[in-house]
């Protein structure tokens, strides 16, 4: 069989993600590539993939796809559930949060493919990482800076000559 190349298409999230949500509502699971740095260090933009499924049994700590405004979607972790309201926070955003309603949660991540390795979000490894990361909020900013510097080679401009 001849080698087939795969073509990658990019669409604006406001156009693409409603179709993803429709597929999930029909019972499909959908894989999407991460875009942006809000879920660092667990997900890197353009490298890692989130496998999404219907949002059932939502609880604090879950990674969800939520439509926080008409056509504006985020893939963030649930920080708190307060009745019908949900506070979301990206792992790479130690201070910034978004609010939505439970009904605005369109999907739940069930797996993450990170550096080619698949992590079950209900699995032991992911739960341990998540527990420590979410409970280190006071020093997360410094840990993220260290991550960018050591692993990503993004030396702060103050240290460049």
Gyration radius, to the nearest Å? 17 Å
Order of helices and strands: HEEEEEEEEHH
Mean pLDDT: 84
Large-scale geometry: globular
- Taking pLDDT < 50 over at least 5 consecutive residues as the criterion, the unreliable ranges are none
Largest sheet: 8 strands, antiparallel
Taken as a percent bin, the fraction of beta residues is 25-35%
Tally of DSSP helical segments: 3
Helical content class: 10-25%
Number of strands: 8
In angstroms, what separates the terminal alpha carbons?
53 Å
Structural class by SSE content: alpha+beta
Which key terms come to mind for this protein?
161 residues, eight-stranded antiparallel β-sheet, 22% helix, globular
Description of the structure:
- The chain has 161 residues and is of the alpha+beta class.
- It is built from 3 helices and 8 strands.
- Strands 1, 2, 3, 4, 5, 6, 7 and 8 form an 8-stranded antiparallel sheet that branches.
- Strand 4 and strand 5 form a beta hairpin.
- The radius of gyration is 17 Å and the shape is globular.
- The N and C termini lie far apart (53 Å).
